[in-house]
Design brief:
This protein is mainly α. Helices cover 76% and strands 0% of the residues. One of its GO terms (cellular component) is nucleus.
Length: 80
């Protein structure tokens, strides 16, 4: 039996047809299929990478601020 058959029956029996059949299929297939462990691992990895990225951006901002204290203003450099 095709795994799409129950979803297609649900779409056929839906009183108010969705504007996007593809979204309907994705929703129903995602709800009926168990979560793939690889997908969950990738989601966690992406979340970790986002956190690291934000931390690096903050660190970069702080380091630039500290560096600016030791560098002469641009106008003084041109006058030398």
């Amino acid at each position: 039996e095709c795994f799409l058959f129950p979803v297609l029956v649900a779409l056929y029996e839906e009183p108010e047809k969705p504007s996007s059949a593809l979204d309907f299929l994705k929703h129903h297939l995602g709800a009926s299929a168990p979560e793939n462990p690889e997908i969950e691992a990738l989601r966690l990895e992406v979340a970790e990478m986002k956190e690291k990225y934000e931390a690096v951006l903050e660190e970069n901002k702080n380091l630039k601020s500290k560096l600016a204290q030791y560098e002469p203003p641009q106008e003084e450099k041109r006058g030398e």
